[in-house]
Each structure stands twice: as C-alpha cells, then as structure tokens.
Amino acid sequence: MKYSNAYNVLPEDIVKIIQEYVNGEYLYIPRKEEAQKKWGENSGSRETLKRRNAEIYLKYMNGAVILDLAQEYYLSDKSIRRIISQQKKLIFKINTES
Fold first, then answer.
1. Which of 93, 44, 84 is nearest to 66 (CA)?
2. Cβ-proximal residues to 57 (8 Å cutoff; 6+ apart), any chain
3. By the 8 A CB rule, do 73 and 52 touch?
4. Which of 11, 23, 29, 93 has a 20 to 30 Å separation from 75 between CA atoms?
5. Where are the domains of the chain?
6. Rounded to whole angstroms, how far apart are CA atoms 84 and 53?
7. What are phi and psi of 52, to 5 degrees?
8. How far is CA 5 from each of CA 1, 17, 27, 30, rounded to the nearest angstrom?
9. Residue 52 and residue 46: Cα distance in Å, rounded?
10. Average pLDDT of the segment spanning 10-39
11. SS3 sequence, the chain?
12. What is the spatial distance between Cα 41 and Cα 53, in angstroms, rounded to a whole number?
C-alpha cells in the first residue's frame, strides 16, 4: 500500500471537507467490497498452501504416518489431522458435484 497526496487524487473541495474531520492525520480508505482480495492472493501464499495440503493428503493416502508428516512439514499432528479432514471433505464435495 502506498500513500497518495489527497490533492493529487481528489478535488480540492472534497479535500477541504475531509480536513474538517481528519486534519493532517492519515486516513485509510478501504477497497470497494467487490475489489477486495482474499488473504494470500497477491503473494501466492494461498496457492502454495493448497498445493502443500494436497501433497500432505496424497502422502497420507499412500500410507504416510501422521507423526512423520508432522515432522516433515513442521506442523503439529493436530494440524495434519485437520488438513487431512479438510482435504477429504473437499474431495467428497468435488465427487458429489460431478
């Protein structure tokens, strides 16, 4: 996020109205709701975690032990169980929609 001088992006009369409320302070103006992005969309973190979770599930289905997966991915066994459960639900949903 970068800062913009209000005089460079807004009409002068609007700047004067805003100054009545927040004179010289920083003001955050959020994106329009339809333009908001979900966590990790810009950085690619969301996709990376999707791939990692699918990989964990595939290894589990091929016989990997939960504790071994936890050590390999530096996660708790509880997190591995949650990922496996989520992946099962996702696959079930995909199969029932087809």
1. 84
2. 83, 84, 87, 88
3. yes
4. 93
5. 6-35, 45-97
6. 8
7. -60, -45
8. 13, 15, 11, 16
9. 10
10. 83
11. CCCCCHHHHCCHHHHHHHHHHCCCCCCCCCCCHHHCCCCCCCCCHHHHHHHHHHHHHHHHHCCCCHHHHHHHHCCCHHHHHHHHHHHHHHHHHHHHHC
12. 17
pLDDT band at residue 13 under the 50/70/90 scheme:
very high
Please give the structure tokens belonging to residue 13: 């009369």
**Cα–Cα dist 63/60, whole Å:** 5
Against a cut of 0.70, is the pTM above it? no
- Give 30-49 pLDDT, tens digit per residue: 877 766 667 666 777 888 99
Quote the CA–CA distance of 48 and 2 in Å, as a whole number: 26
Joined together, the tokens standing for residue 50 give 């999707």
